[in-house]
Specification:
The protein has eleven helices and 16 strands. The chain is an alpha/beta fold and about 325 residues long. The chain starts with a strand and ends with a strand.
Length: about 325
């Protein structure tokens, strides 16, 4: 089968190639999936450079999440050949076939296509864990979402709106404002460039934000400490901006807010009952048609480099989906 393999780490994708590899064989309790769609996540890019906290042994098949059809499964298991499923694991998604534990798969909601299903898991699990489970999101609260044109940021905007919150979405580019408004219908959009606290204050009537969702870090995090309401929470999702910010502890003390680290996957592993509840909650919303993953473009897996470079250069709004083909 064809698979996208990271053979060596590099800053320019020179260690990545689409090559023929042996099709994986499943073991009891596992499912062989014919992959129909995979979605690109920022950790996928970071892992090609060795810059993500997870550092798989080389070589490895890239890709966190996928959707496809069951090709083989245990006769007494939860899935049958032909079932449409989606799921993910740490690596191995960017291939024509993937083997995954049955417990890590879910049925694709009725009426949802493979591309949309492949775009759900990582982004919405992170959004729900951060905003609801750890953030305590309530209807009517103000939520400031940074990096809102990325898959994780857009999912947070979409989820917060679905749950009745008021959303201020940020982007680093004036040129993406119209696309961002169309993608998730936030209550306001601002360009997060330099000082944006006054803009946030003006939008919220001086109230500032109950929750700040930050997958960017660096200067964005620094300014966000001025945007959190007393008693609010600043959710640390990642560091797509490159710099890991520091904070003096007197700032959250005086301003009365919490800084909360969000690692959705690790949270679910450490607290499996909570993880299952979180998954069932966002999956239920998706099945009801209340969540709307935004797909920027769909490309064949053969154009993987174009996809990775578009993500690296911040050229997308939402998710890029790749299709491995036959």
């Amino acid at each position: 089968m064809l698979a996208l393999v990271v053979q060596s780490l590099s800053s320019d994708l020179s260690g990545v190639d689409l090559i023929e590899v042996t099709r994986p064989e499943r073991k009891p309790g596992q499912v062989l999936v014919k992959v129909r769609a995979v979605s690109l996540n920022f950790p996928d890019l970071l892992m090609t450079r060795g810059e993500y906290q997870l550092k798989p042994a080389l070589p490895f098949v890239a890709g966190l999440e996928f959707a496809g059809d069951v090709a083989d499964a245990d006769a007494d298991g939860p899935f049958r050949v032909g079932d449409a499923v989606f799921g993910g694991q740490k690596t191995g998604a960017f291939a024509q076939y993937a083997v995954v534990d049955a417990a890590a798969l879910r049925s694709v909601p009725g009426g949802m296509d493979h591309a949309t299903a492949a775009s759900l898991g990582a982004a919405y699990s992170t959004a729900y864990t951060g905003l609801v489970e750890l953030g305590g999101l309530e209807a009517g609260q103000w939520v400031l979402v940074h990096g809102a044109t990325g898959g994780v940021g857009l999912a947070a905007c979409d989820l917060a709106k679905a749950l009745g919150a008021k959303v201020i979405a940020t982007t680093g580019s004036e040129g993406k404002i119209a696309a961002l408004k169309a993608a998730c219908n936030p209550d306001a959009v601002i360009v997060a460039d330099g000082r944006f606290r006054d803009a946030v204050s003006g939008i919220t009537g001086g109230r500032l934000c109950d929750l700040v969702y930050d997958p960017v870090g660096g200067d964005i995090f620094d300014e966000s400490t001025r945007c959190v309401a007393f008693g609010g929470k600043l959710l640390v999702i990642g560091f797509a901006g490159g710099r890991i910010a520091d904070i003096s502890t007197n700032i959250p003390l005086i301003k009365g807010f919490s800084v909360v680290g969000v690692r959705a996957g690790e949270y679910a592993r450490r607290f499996p009952d909570r993880g299952a509840r979180i998954r069932d909650a966002w999956l239920g919303l998706a099945a009801q048609g209340k969540l709307h993953p935004h797909i920027d473009r769909v490309l064949p897996l053969s154009r993987w480099r174009e996809a990775y470079e578009a993500m690296a250069h911040r050229e997308i709004v939402g998710k890029i989906v790749l299709e491995p083909g036959a």
